[in-house]
Write a structure and sequence with these properties.
The complex is a heterotrimer of chains A (about 325), B (about 240) and C (about 290).
Chain A: H1 3-34, H2 41-56, H3 71-93, H4 98-118, H5 120-123, H6 144-167, H7 169-179, H8 181-186, H9 191-217, H10 227-241, H11 246-268, H12 275-296
Chain B: E1 5-14, E2 17-27, E3 32-36, H1 43-50, E4 56-63, E5 66-67, H2 73-79, E6 81-84, H3 96-103, H4 112-121, H5 123-127, H6 138-150, E7 156-160, H7 168-183, E8 187-191, H8 195-201, E9 204-209, E10 212-217, H9 219-224, H10 226-233
Parallel strand pairs in B: 3-8, 3-9, 6-7, 7-8
Antiparallel strand pairs in B: 1-2, 1-4, 4-5, 9-10
Helix pairs in contact in B: 3-6
Chain C: H1 2-32, H2 39-57, H3 64-87, H4 92-114, E1 129-131, E2 137-139, H5 141-163, H6 165-175, H7 177-182, H8 187-212, H9 219-234, H10 239-255, H11 265-279
Antiparallel strand pairs in C: 1-2
Classes of the chains: A mainly alpha (about 325), B alpha/beta (about 240), C mainly alpha (about 290).
């Protein structure tokens, strides 16, 4: 491959890794900080992507939208729409065991996928949305590299936001809930409210990631939001990187995306007749990777090193 | 002959913090041993440690003279030790009879004689053998719990606050039952909040405080001890 | 009227499939305290195991059923011993993640071995009976068999849970894990039996779905949501509730096509589940949560 090819591949690779990193940080705020299980990441991602696309694309008779808004308005809309969905799901499940949340989130992701597929007036259905503009049009930075810089900027912002939240008193309560829910409740903290806030923060980041994806790719269709792409890889990234640790989340995004892309290069060498098998084999490998991490290194590559909790949690049940 | 169950100088607790700091207990097959003491003294913890429900860090448990420290609950049951926790001590969606059958899970052979024996001891359970226990009253649930433990024909019965939450009439009844069970040659080791009544029937009494033994004597002697009375019997 | 009756038949068929899956999900939750996300893909793999057996020996589609049930029971126990058992000492939610990964592994295995195209047990269309005395109701023999065999399997599960020592121990463990341990109930043996039943019933659900429609690597995953909805509706951890839940969800999904587009059928299951989570999260039969 020529140098230009290599550098353009690398830029595209890093842009994707950056978008995934934002999603993984979002999941870390839900699972890593509070132990909330979201298997519907694809849904939040899709809502963000479509919202931004509808807000920013030029008009079309085929579907709603064509508001022609600027890029940043699109991203803000993406974040807000995802927050709204996160609020609804969070309010319903905040008081229940996390298994219910997990089930509810695959439900919501499936509903969103069905909605996007069937409601042509809004999303153009299976034909998809095309012509989603890149930002910085007309400037010298209207290049893949320019977009990579924008994504990198958002990764840095998201990282500092989530890291700040983690070490703040608010984050301390979240960890206390995760470690010992009864004791935290006894200390007078509204567990449901803190959980909800963390869930919504994560949803916001997932929506943002979706928006960034839409403007990078330029085209959206329901097929892009199979649960695998949206959800599974992100889980493997967080577990491999080290859930609870924001730096681990970033590392996980980079490493797992590297493995995933690397296997694509490998299976790409297979004859095209085996394309389906190749794709299945890659998923299989990622699935096995997850099991190996869970079995041998559940704390991930960069384990969480939480700052000490000030109030020592009761370690066990006292009795008479 | 060696004593039925003996615990020597137990140290145990949750997550590295010892709640028990040198507890000694003993019970003979014809005895009712009662542990009393203020809240947080570690009474229930001592029972759990003996039964293998939490790790003993230091000390020894002997059963018929054999060291059984940190034996798993299943093995304790096989050796003939039955334990009734204070709470959540029944299977609520199972019927009375099914609860009793679960108690005899490890028993080989015909369990019908044991069932008949438990029903004889608790006639009220016989009347309701097909009823799910989740819908029964507190007193009836306690009978189910004790009946379940008796199904293995134990040589030692461990009871954690068997009268908690019961009415005064049912408390009296329960103590009578416990004496009847003991009269069959089953040693009883129990933790009780109704200290006066429990010590009155105890051949051995232990007063625990802050994770260690404070006083040890026959039940009636402890009742008569002014130091014990002052400590928690309310004068 | 005629149409409603027809949809009721379809609803019973779908309800039977969902009940087969939901019993397993509910039992696994009761014993191991986690939502088993690979259950849909257990169905898929079961259906394909049946296909492999049928095409290898040139037998009728109904032979797929016992073969798939047996095969899937063995695979379920193997997966538990190989992966889940080692994760049991950690929090149950780690098992949930692992089962989610297992779902993807099984699905990609199915794709690798059998490809991604639609397949069927038998080619050609089965002609339904036309019951003129019931307003011209069309009844496929396959549908009748699916409902009858599911009912028989449900009766067998019931007899197991209510008459056998191991079955009662399973309910006891689901009720009160600590007390089961104190009573000396052998947890590992009960867990193994849970996977045998859960795996076998999931395979039955997969084969039924394959007979009714077609085989596809995504068939189980797309059925997982209605199965969870059925288990939650019935009270998670309650196998009998799961049967009722499966029927309610199945019939509601089919009946909904009277009012809304058929592509929104899964949305009906989801809506019922969400309403249940708001109004009565413990389910109709008061589950173990």
């Amino acid at each position: 491959m020529e140098l230009a090819g290599v550098s353009s591949y690398l830029i595209s690779f890093l842009t994707f890794a950056g978008i995934y990193a934002i999603l993984v940080l979002g999941l870390n705020s839900q699972w890593g900080f509070t132990g909330q299980f979201n298997i519907g990441i694809a849904g939040f991602f899709a809502v963000g992507a479509y919202t931004s696309a509808i807000l920013t694309t030029p008009g079309s008779p085929a579907y709603l939208g064509g508001f022609g808004m600027p890029f940043l308005v699109g991203l803000a809309g993406a974040t807000l729409a995802s927050v709204a969905i996160g609020l609804i799901i969070g309010v319903i499940t905040a008081r229940l065991r996390t298994d219910y949340l997990a089930i509810a989130t695959i439900g919501i992701a499936e509903m969103i996928r069905l909605f996007i597929k069937n409601e042509d007036w809004l999303t153009n259905g299976v034909r998809g949305l095309a012509g989603i503009a890149r930002p910085l049009v007309g400037t010298p930075l209207d290049t893949p590299l320019g977009y990579l810089l924008i994504v990198a900027l958002f990764v840095v912002l998201a990282y500092f936001l989530v890291e700040r939240a983690y070490v703040s008193p608010w984050g301390r309560v979240l960890r206390a809930i995760r470690e010992n829910e009864p004791a935290t409740a006894a200390a007078g903290k509204s567990i449901a409210r803190f959980r909800l806030q963390a869930f919504v923060l994560g949803s916001a980041l997932m929506g943002l990631g979706g928006g960034l994806y839409a403007h990078f790719f330029g085209f959206l269709s329901p097929e892009a939001f199979k649960p695998l792409y949206g959800t599974f890889i992100i889980w493997v990234m967080l577990i491999a990187g080290g859930s609870g640790n924001n730096r681990g989340a970033l590392l996980g995004a980079l490493v797992v995306w590297g493995i995933w892309s690397g296997t694509e290069l490998l299976t790409g060498m297979l004859p095209s007749a085996y394309a389906t098998q190749g794709a299945a084999l890659r998923v299989l490998l990622i699935g096995v990777l997850l099991q190996m991490f869970l079995l041998t290194r559940p704390q991930g590559l960069l384990p969480e090193k939480p700052p000490r909790l000030t109030a020592k949690g009761a370690k066990g049940r006292q009795d008479g | 002959m060696s004593i039925l169950l003996e615990a020597r100088d137990l140290y145990a607790g949750y997550g590295g913090n010892d709640i028990l700091k040198g507890v000694n207990l003993g019970v003979e097959h014809d005895e009712i041993a009662v542990i009393v003491g203020p809240n947080g003294a570690g009474k229930s913890t001592a029972m759990k440690a003996v039964f293998g429900l939490l790790n003993i860090r230091q000390g020894q448990v002997l059963f018929r003279g054999e060291a059984i420290t940190n034996t798993k609950p299943e093995q304790m049951v096989r050796r003939g030790v039955a334990y009734v926790p204070q709470e959540h001590n029944i299977f609520p969606s199972l019927t009375v009879q099914e609860n009793l059958e679960m108690g005899a899970y490890l028993m080989k052979g015909d369990i019908r004689p044991r069932l008949a024996h438990v029903y004889e001891l608790f006639p009220r359970l016989a009347e309701r053998r097909r009823q799910p226990t989740g819908q029964m009253s507190g007193g009836e649930r306690q009978m189910v719990a004790m009946g379940r433990a008796l199904m293995i024909d134990p040589s030692l019965l461990m009871l954690d606050e068997p009268t908690a939450g019961l009415s005064p009439r049912l408390i009296d009844e329960t103590f009578v039952q416990i004496q009847r069970i003991n009269a069959e040659g089953i040693g009883v080791l129990m933790v009780e909040q109704n200290a006066r009544q429990a010590l009155a029937i105890a051949t051995r009494g232990y007063v625990m405080a802050t994770g260690a033994n404070r006083h040890e004597d026959t039940g009636p002697a402890l009742l008569a001890d002014p130091a014990v009375a002052e400590m928690f019997l309310g004068g | 009227m005629n149409e409603i009756l027809q949809l009721l038949v379809y609803g019973l068929v779908l309800g039977s499939v969902l009940a087969m899956g939901a019993i397993g999900v509910s039992m696994i939750f009761g014993i191991l305290r986690f939502a088993h996300f690979a259950h849909g893909d257990f169905m898929t793999l079961g259906a394909y195991l049946g296909l492999a057996f049928v095409s290898a020996f040139g037998l009728s589609a109904w032979w797929a059923l016992p073969a798939a049930m047996l095969g899937m029971a063995i695979i379920a126990v193997a997966i538990d011993q190989l992966i889940y058992r080692r994760l049991r000492r950690t929090q149950p939610v780690i098992l949930l993640i692992s089962s989610f990964g297992m779902a993807l592994i099984l699905r990609s295995l199915v794709q690798l071995i059998w490809g991604s195209d639609n397949q069927t047990y038998v080619s050609g269309i089965q002609f339904p009976w036309r019951l003129d005395w019931l307003g011209g109701l069309r009844l496929k023999p396959d549908h009748v068999w699916i409902v009858l065999i599911s009912s028989a399997l449900i009766v067998m599960v019931h007899l197991f849970l209510s008459r056998t020592r191991l079955g009662k121990a399973m309910r006891a463990m689901s009720d009160n894990m600590d007390l089961a341990r104190i009573s000396g109930i052998p947890a590992e043996r009960v867990i193994m039996m849970t996977w045998i039943i859960g795996g076998a019933l999931a395979a039955a659900a997969g084969v039924f779905l394959g007979i009714d429609t077609r085989l596809h690597p995504m068939m189980g995953w797309t059925t997982l949501l209605p199965i969870f909805a059925a288990a939650i509706l019935g009270g998670i951890g309650r196998p009998y509730g799961a049967i009722v839940g499966g029927m309610v969800i199945g019939i509601s999904m089919e009946m909904s096509t009277l009012f809304i587009s058929a592509s929104y059928k899964p949305a009906v299951a989801f809506a019922i589940m969400v309403i249940m989570l708001i109004v009565r999260p413990q389910g109709i039969f008061k589950g173990t949560l």
